[in-house]
Write a structure and sequence with these properties.
phenylpyruvate tautomerase activity; D-dopachrome decarboxylase activity; cytoplasm; about 120 residues; 2 helices; EC 4.1.1.84; two-stranded antiparallel ribbon; alpha/beta; acetylation
Length: about 120
């Protein structure tokens, strides 16, 4: 059950229409998870500074069970997410950061319980 949060200083009007849906599909493919289990949030117009510059930028937070827990996994994921984000957002790679957070099933609540018991 992957969670993706894309935060950017870009104005909402500058984001491509359907970005959240495409990010959902791409994340499912990259992480090898069913698309219906992926949750995506896109936040725009945020005051952000990356590398001491307030130039347009973005950061992607990727949290999931079992697929973001090693450097080897995340190196491959990172390359694919960067390819997608640079094209979709029109930003250079040095204006984008990605943070990966491994989750355990007991850390995700769903249907009145946690994933451990589903």
């Amino acid at each position: 059950m992957p969670f993706l949060e894309l935060e950017t200083s870009l104005p909402a009007a500058q984001l491509p229409q359907g970005l959240a849906g495409r990010l959902c599909s791409v994340a499912a493919a990259i992480l090898n998870k069913p698309e219906e289990t992926v949750s995506v949030t896109v936040k725009s117009d945020l005051p952000m500074v990356v590398s001491s510059s307030a130039a347009p930028c973005a950061q992607l937070l990727v949290s999931s069970i079992a697929v973001v827990g090693t450097a080897e996994q995340n190196r491959g994921h990172s390359a694919k997410f960067f390819e997608f984000l640079t094209k979709e957002l029109g930003l250079d790679a040095d204006r984008i950061l990605i943070r990966f957070y491994p989750l355990e099933p007991w850390q995700i609540g769903k249907k009145g319980t946690v994933m451990t018991f589903l």
